[in-house]
Task: structure prediction
Amino acid sequence: MAKEKNTEKQQELSITVAREEDLSEWYTQVIVKSDLIDYSKVSGCIVYKPRSYQIWEIIQRETDKRFKEAGIQNAYFPLFIPESLLMKEAEHLEGFAPEVAWVTQTGDSELGEKLAIRPTSETIMYDSYSKWVQSWRDLPLRLNQWNNVVRWEFKHSTPFLRSREFLWNEGHTVFATKEEAVAEEKVIIGIYKEILEKYMALYGVVGRKSKNETFPGAEWTHSIECFLPTGKAIQGPDFHHDGQIFSKAFNISFLDEKGERQFAWQNTFAITTRMIGVLIMTHSDDKGLVLPPRLTYNKCVIVPLLFKGKEEAVLEQARKLKERLSSFGAVLDERVGVSPGFKFSEWEIKGMPLRLELGPRDLEQGQIVVVKRHSGEKILVPLSDAEKEVERILNKIQDEMFEKSKAYTLSNRVVCESVGDFEKALAEKKWPVVRWCGDPQCEESLKDLYGVKSNNIPLEQDKVAKGKCVFCSRDASCYAHLCKSL
Ligand SMILES: [Zn+2]
Result:
């Protein structure tokens, strides 16, 4: 009877649909059953449970550390933005207007001026900046804030990937010269790339956004795009060079060393909780969540194999092992009346990077069985070397996961020289890199014809674009990633 109940519970806990079969149902089951999120009463807004919030905490901590080393300071600006401020830069407003949530009333009385819940903070920050920046001595001004923003999208929401409220960093920097502002791109994109590669085990391609896809109010945008195993690309962190567009709209100007008034040069940049969705889509499998070891505090679980009469000896060693592995946040699963097999699959669903099995026979032979979550590989490790070996294997998992993501992306990139090449690549769910003109009208027609847009134009071009655009009669200017995006 007890066994039957266990099987039932296991069914309820395990992922019942393959990702190949039904991606969206699979994704939903993974994030719910691995205990990452809960749904809330507000559509499009989720609860980040401790197991997902810690992922964000680690991303935030590591990014923040690097920002500070680069000379960027944190500040905090209000959540509410008066309508008059939001309307100051027309193009910027136009980009966000349909998604802005407004506060119009407090208690029973209507507000004199309605307040936007920040969709992004340029306008409220730059109002302050215009007061703070007066002389060349006030520059550079490089601030960042970690906060939440609201964009009331009407497309179908997907936790992490498309939420109405999400968490992010917004960096907003001001420089005296264009050269200094532009030079910041390398530093910031370098930080984001390191976070993606070293912590999230994600490979991405750095490139420039097309005119159509450039952030509203920016002169140009660079992004890191990731290619998902669904044949779609998704935008990761980005960096916008705003030129003097906002400084002119908000009068962020200063007296230079010669006493002449100049408008400042500005940048903005962000990484968001969307990346958690990219991580899940890229690495998780039909057994559940797969997490890179550096994105979780608890990196291994010890499952003692208990046989009648030998329980005490095994448990004693298992408890000692837990202490020895405390710097990896080792968890000991001592539950009685739950079979090892049940425990194994439960920790697999939750994405525990490493499982350590210890039974009476292992004890006799002075070894532990170590199982990698992402590959299922089993390794025998001498019990006496547990600390050293666990550390080595965790680092190896981290590297293997990144290499997998990189190999997947690179092996799916296809350079296309004709419409035929491009259509074939799309049909095979590959990532086309197409000889292209970059023209906004051409991009619009691609949207209509194929439902694709440009993801980005890689900074490192596959080759020099010569001749005509693959799609129209204009001259080609680049090779661009063109596919459906999530
Ligand atoms: Zn074209």
Summary: DSSP finds 15 helices and 24 strands in the chain. The longest helix spans residues 386-412. The CA atoms of residues 104 and 110 lie 6 Å apart.
